[in-house]
Amino acid sequence: MTRTSLSRAFVPGIAVLTVLALSACGASNEDGGSDNSGDGGSSSGPESAGLTGVLKGAGATSQEKAQEAWAIGIQGANDGFEVQYQPVGSTDGRASFVEGAAAFAGTDSALNDDDGQLTAAKKTCGGTEPIQVPAYVSPIAVAFNLPGIDSVQASADTIAKIFDGKIKKWSDIPDEQADGVTLPDTDITPVHRSDDSGTTKNFTDYLGKAAPESWPYEAEDAFPVKGEAADGTSGVIQQISTIEGAIGYADNSQAEGLGKVSVQVGESFVAPSPEGAAKVLEASPPAEGVSDVDMAVALDRTTTEEGAYPVVLLSYLVACQKYDDADTAKNVKGYLSYIVSDAGQEQAAKEAGSAPLGEATAKKAQEIVAKIGS
């Protein structure tokens, strides 16, 4: 099997999330994290033990907190094992995997052949179908900065008009969507991702499907409207926090301290929550034409199920079924097995605020990851 050497450098200038085994002694592990130490948790299995060396991954910035939590959990059970995850965004993470710079990728936009990456990944994986399993489901918060205001209600149509520059002041939001507050005559500054991002693709997919008359753009990794932009999830959060009147979109786990929009679902307005995100996943069918090791899902953005929150991303892990190097295969299998285990899912839910995979989804993901070998 031909695979580009994993020894090549990661993207220059991008910080690598490295959580040393010593981090297991930190606060995250002390506050209940010890349940996932030892053998990686009773439900993570023996394949998550006996790991050594450095494992490189790259991808979604939205996975950063979860990846840190998973690294702490797995490294606490494996002395001499180090996970390096580079949060470069979903698009660049998939590219790093295809090029062989990363042994696995995290992505908020399912690997497909819209850009030829699925075919390229099959070549990287020696002609076999790449594995794609969900890591977690998480709400995308539509977050804003208005001093003294924590919540605003808005329909998909209103959100689309805001991000397309059609609604320019907070006071222009319809009164019935103001959630009982008087909105100021403050300019709205929409903030979007400057880098190609799976979060952007999920957000624009929601707008296009839930508000097709007000959002004429395709779902893409690149945001289609010019305006205030920032790199990565952390950059968007920083920009929103800095600019009064700003509004943007980001993984809910990283939007604490900001106001959040409750989006209209049927006749109700629903705030972002892991439980609401999980309801959308349960109501969504598999994507068309996927292989038996690909769990990509066509998320239902127009659900009217009570309590569902449709502005969600389903974050995936991408890996090969086979690796030339036996140690790499063991490490990828061990780490991904931990992530999709009960212990790993509980760790991410506690530390990153994601919704754990449902029992049937987790079981299928575990069966697929078990196929990884050399």
Automatic annotation (TrEMBL):
The keyword Signal applies. The keyword Transport applies. It holds the Pfam family PBP_like_2. Keywords: Phosphate transport, Signal, Transport. InterPro entries: ABC_phos-bd_PstS, PBP_domain, Phosphate-bind_PstS. Residues 29-58, 178-200 are annotated as: Disordered. Transmembrane segments: none annotated. Residues 1-23 form the signal peptide. It comes from the Bacteria. Residues 49-342 form the PBP domain. Belongs to the PstS family. This is Phosphate-binding protein.
